[in-house]
Amino acid sequence: MKAKRANITRGGELVRHRRDAAQLKRPGDNILALVHTFSNLIGRAFYGPLEVRHHLSVHQWRILLTLAHHPGATAVDIIARWALQPMSVSRAIRELAQSGLIVRRIGSSDRRSQELFLTRKGQRIYDTVVPDANARYHEIVDCLPPAARARLARALIMLIANTKQLVS
Q1: Given 62, 68, 73, 168, which is the most exposed site by the fewest CB atoms within 10 A?
Q2: Helix, strand, or coil here: 116?
Q3: CA–CA dist 19, 21 (Å, integer)
């Protein structure tokens, strides 16, 4: 007797294999589903309060964070660092510049690019947000012992590097 096939859809596509249907029922068995779920939860737990309290979008915060540690980074650098969509980075850069939080300067090595820097106001905002961001970071990750955090970081670095090769 043949096993009945599942009639579950995934993204509009009919799932025809029992194993695929089982994965939908048990996302804990699928590493990418776990990463996706974790990413969405981070967005709600971390960035929601950031937007409400500090009036910064996720992309704006990532740009400020990058420029605080890498002054002179370009939009291309930020896109590559965070794997963001170019249009959303351009919009966030424009908004930050209009708010006086960053300045753009013609690139020193490539006159076609613009290097980005925090203004004094941008640095003050960064300094105000960082304690909240660090506290939330620790609330999220401190449930793992340091050795488990290190293993997770190494595994994620490997997955990111592998995936970058697939999209390049």
Answers
A1: 168
A2: strand
A3: 5
Q: What is the model's pLDDT at position 112?
A: 81
The tens digit of pLDDT for each residue in 4-27 reads: 444 444 444 444 445 555 555 565
Structure tokens belonging to residue 117: 């820097």
What's the Cα-to-Cα distance from 164 to each of 14, 18, 77, rounded to whole Å? 29, 30, 15
Task: Provide the terminal-to-terminal Cα distance of the chain, rounded to the nearest Å.
Answer: 46
Q: Is residue 43 part of a domain?
A: no
Phi, psi of 6, deg, nearest 5? -75, 145
On whether residue 4 sits in a domain, the answer given is no
Domain that holds residue 92: 55-167
- Domain tally, the chain: 1
CATH number at residue 102: 1.10.10.10
